[in-house]
Design a protein that fits this description.
It is a single chain. By secondary structure, the protein is mainly β. The protein has a single domain, classed as monomeric porin ompg (Porin). The protein has 5 helices and 19 strands. The protein has a 14-stranded antiparallel β-barrel. The chain has a two-stranded antiparallel sheet with strand order 4-5. Strand 17 and strand 18 form a beta hairpin. It is globular. The termini are far apart.
């Protein structure tokens, strides 16, 4: 990453401040936690809380693991980021689960987000000093099947964020935090709807419940992206070989809306807003009713995604989806496409592609993401 790229990042930060003034966009530390890293979920509108089981359930809904027919499995995914501008920023994800009994599952994952190499120069003749900002998380979960149709899960997470450039700010430091997820998943028995049979699924995940992060002794603490995710889906089983799934997911950040005005140097004009300086627990509860414009603004803070998945013989898949966020809260709107296939050796390959439909271009625009997973029976 060169100086031109660094300047581009600072420009994005400035645009973000302007956007916050006009739109009150909610910002958090470690936002990469909300990026869909696996290609299957990325292909169906970036959702996964209520879809059928796969090896990357740790990110979306760990309680899905109890409905796995395999005894163990692992998954690896790679997501280029800002690939149209630079080539050394990426998100990597590694997951593993083990099912010691029919009712319980242990699961683990590691995510690493690299912001590439930044060349720091005092003047053009200097030998550049290279910094490599990065973030990673490690988590472990336990899921339990309460009955044949419903499971619960709990996950503990450690977060480390080292994104401050100490060459610019000597007082900056890496920041750490911990978090907890609580999830649930329901899968019905085979039911009949008209001439077709099908399976109903529903799920929730309350994720990243944990303390705020601080990058310097004098700096303000930042909320981590605590989030409520709920969804449902129905899989139509037309025959023994074909199935078609429709799923819907809704997200709500459990983080306070920026409502404290920031004035210019004269103190007469509001230039932007910041979040109230409160504890993360207070922020979670206040996030449901703290928007300055009331309930109408709270509803605008919800994001929606609709996903479609066709499966042939559970070995070939076609996917598409749409993700929508209100214009005043970030304006992320994009169409996703995906495909996948499963080999006879229980190895699954998935690919996805994203196309922005908003004036705000996604950093993942025209990015090809891929995932690889393996299950042991």
């Amino acid at each position: 990453m060169n100086k031109k790229t660094l300047s581009f990042i600072f420009l994005l930060s400035a645009l973000s401040i302007y956007s916050q003034k006009e739109r009150r966009v909610i910002t958090t530390a470690v936002p990469f936690l909300m990026i869909s890293s696996d290609a299957r979920a990325s292909g169906i509108g970036e959702q996964g809380v209520a879809t059928s089981f796969d090896n990357f359930a740790q990110h979306w809904n760990p309680s899905k693991y109890v409905f796995s027919e395999s005894s163990s499995g692992f998954g690896f995914s790679y997501t280029p980021y800002l690939s149209k501008i630079i080539n050394d920023v990426f998100l990597g994800n590694l997951t593993y689960y083990s099912k010691p009994s029919e009712r319980s599952v242990w699961s683990f994952s590691l995510k690493y987000f690299s912001l590439g190499d930044v060349d720091i120069l005092q003047n053009p003749l200097d030998v550049p000093f290279i910094e490599s900002p990065n973030e990673f998380i490690f988590d472990a979960g336990y899921s339990l099947k309460l009955n044949e149709n419903f499971g619960l899960g709990i996950t503990g997470r450690f977060l480390l964020s080292d994104v401050k450039l100490q060459s610019f700010d000597a007082e900056s430091q890496a920041s750490t935090s911990v978090a907890v997820d609580i999830s649930g998943f329901y899968k019905s028995d085979r039911i009949s709807i008209g001439r077709n049979d099908g399976i109903l699924r529903a799920g929730f995940n309350i994720s990243n419940l944990g303390p705020k992060m601080k990058y310097s002794d004098l700096g303000q603490e930042s909320f981590i992206p605590s989030n409520l995710r709920v969804g449902t889906g129905f899989e139509f089983l037309s025959n023994n070989s074909n199935s078609f799934t429709v799923s819907l997911e809704i997200n709500k950040l459990l983080v306070p809306t920026p409502s404290v005005p920031i004035y210019d140097s004269t103190g007469s004009e509001i230039i932007s807003y910041k979040q109230e300086d409160i504890s993360f627990l207070s922020g979670i509860f206040k996030s449901f009713g703290d928007a300055p414009a009331g309930s109408s603004e709270e509803l605008k803070e919800l994001t929606y995604s609709l996903g479609l998945e066709y499966a042939f013989n559970q070995s070939f898949f076609l996917r598409t989806g749409y993700f929508s966020e209100h214009e005043l809260k970030g304006s992320r709107k994009f169409l996703t496409l995906g495909t996948g296939f499963k080999t006879n050796s229980n190895i699954t390959f998935d690919l996805s592609y994203l196309i922005s439909t908003s004036e705000i271009i996604s950093p993942l625009e025209n990015t090809l993401r891929f995932s690889l997973s393996f299950n042991r029976f």
